[in-house]
Amino acid sequence: MTLEDLIRLLKTTDDVNEIDQRRMEIADLLPGIEIMYDYNQQNSAHQYDLWQHSIHTVINLNRGLVDDMLYFAALLHDIVRPACHCKGRREE
Q1: Residue burial 56-89, b: 16+ Cβ < 10 Å; e: rest
Q2: Separation between Cα atoms, residue 76 and residue 24, nearest integer Å
Q3: Tens digit of each residue's pLDDT (9 = 90 or more) over 29-44
Q4: What is the pLDDT of residues 42-63, one digit of tens each?
Q5: In angstroms, what CA-CA distances link 1 with 12, 22, 26, 29, 41?
Q6: Per-residue confidence (pLDDT) for residue 43, from 0 to 100
Q7: Rounded CA gap, 28 and 53, in Å?
């Protein structure tokens, strides 16, 4: 997968599963994105793990926007969330 392929996928698909099925190809293109896979946001306002949340964000954009980078930004908008997670004082 090339960056152009990824942008085309993000811009044209209306199916979350279509993006999710290509997660390993995306990880090959964007090393480090795997941290989003299955990451529990530990927030009752978020019903999805971080990866699913991000691809739903992409899908909720209008299809065919002129600025392709909006789709890319939507995919990566929370990628640093795991690095910003603060541990509480309780062990659990």
Answers
A1: ebbbeeeeeeeeeeebbebbeebbebeeeeeeee
A2: 15
A3: 999 888 878 766 666 6
A4: 666 566 777 888 999 999 999 9
A5: 15, 9, 7, 7, 28
A6: 63
A7: 20
Is-contact 20 52, C-beta < 8 A?
Answer: yes
pTM of the model: 0.78
pLDDT at residue number 1: 93
| Best CA proximity match to 32, nearest among 86, 79, 65 | 79
- 54 token code pair: 């991000």
SS3 sequence, 10-41?
HHHCCCHHHHHCCHHHHHHHCCCHHHHCCCCC
